[in-house]
Amino acid sequence: MKKLSPGRKRLVSNSITYGIVIAAFIILQVCNAGGLLSPSIQGQLVPICAYVVMAIALNLVVGISGELSLGHAGFMSVGAFSGVVAALSLQNAIPNDGLRLAVAMVIGAALAGVAGVIVGVPVLRLRGDYLAIVTLAFGEIIRNIFNVLYVGVDENGLHFSLQNEMALNLAEGGKSILKGPMGFTTNVKLATFTAGFILVLITLTVALNLINSRSGRAIMALRDNRIAAESVGIGATKYKLMAFVTSAVLAGAAGVLYAMNYSSMAPKKFDFNTSILILVFVVLGGIGNIRGSIIAAAFLTYLPELLRNFNLDEYRMLVYAIVLILVMLVTNNPTLRSLFTFAGRKAKKEEAQKGGAVQ
């Protein structure tokens, strides 16, 4: 059998990843049209897309760049709340729901990218635990800012306040959008599964092109050996910041999609636990493995609802934890992992054939 070149292998691998995403979308759309999806599954489709994008985005930092970030829920919240403000402010100017959602995503992604630059420039000079602690602090700072932020809109434009809703001084006919710790309570739900699918494809395209580009190879060189990479002229801050900001932009777009699926949401939703949940997706799917992140995010997002359907609501978090432990044991044990892979089974078969030939 002819051995594939590295470029050909990469093309085949990327095609399989795209194929899995497209096939899943088509199957779910057909099932939904036929009335085969339960309301619980339908309600999870958009969050699954949002979390898949978040998992891919975080994998750019953790897997490709080799840095541990614990504050990606902060970028998600920047995108979520700025996107909601943009969508509600532009209701009259852009009556088309799809176009307004796209504009909100662009604004949310751009502001999350700005936040990524502000955080990344000083933070990426740190390494290891220090970087994780600072990104964790950033996520908590962002959440607390939104806890005291009030935003309203009237005929004069946007109004901001850090005191209370009355301090916005809105004109007659104006409306309050963000209400401090209550977040937003009156949102027009614009997110759809189709929009989520398109965002996942865009995210995949951006991530895979970055990984396979010259810049991506420089980022991975810094991950593998920073001293050697810097010795040949690769700027550590420049390339690591590129991965970090790209990840923040994608997280902001995912935040807009996620927020636009609900009529109300509070800042406490984007706390430390959300960052850890996204990190779990990356770890269980395989650090640096984009396809694994997609599968892990989709499966683990729906798992609690699946357990609830089997009347295991009281024990669903216990079962969820057991599943996480089992997956970690399998993925980190070469012997167990080989039992679940085609390559492992093929290798065992070849060894058996060689043994028989010797005898």
What is the fold's blueprint, element by element?
Blueprint lengths: L5 H28 L5 H26 L7 H18 L7 H27 L5 H19 L2 E5 L2 E5 L13 E5 L13 H19 L2 H11 L1 H6 L4 H24 L12 H14 L4 H20 L6 H16 L2 H6 L2 H17 L1
Antiparallel strand pairs: 1-2, 1-3
Helix pairs in contact: 1-6, 2-6, 2-9, 2-10, 2-11, 3-4, 3-5, 3-9, 4-9, 6-9, 7-9, 10-11, 11-12
Shape: globular
The biggest beta sheet is recorded as: 3 strands, antiparallel
Mean pLDDT: 85
Question: What is the distance, rounded to the nearest whole angstrom, between the alpha carbons of the first and last residues?
Answer: 26 Å
Number of strands: 3
* Series of secondary-structure elements, N-terminal to C-terminal: HHHHHEEEHHHHHHHHH
Radius of gyration: 22 Å
- Alpha-beta content class: mainly alpha
Oligomer: single chain
Tell me the strand order in the biggest sheet.
2-1-3
Short description:
Helix content is 70%, strand content 4%. With 359 residues, it is mainly alpha-helical. A 3-stranded antiparallel sheet has the order 2-1-3, with helices on one face.
Question: What would your notes on this structure say?
Answer:
The chain has 14 helices and 3 strands. It has 359 residues and is mostly helical. It folds into 2 domains: 245 residues, no CATH class; 49 residues, no CATH class. Strands 2-1-3 form a 3-stranded antiparallel beta sheet, covered by helices on one side. β1 and β2 form a beta hairpin. The C terminus is likely disordered.
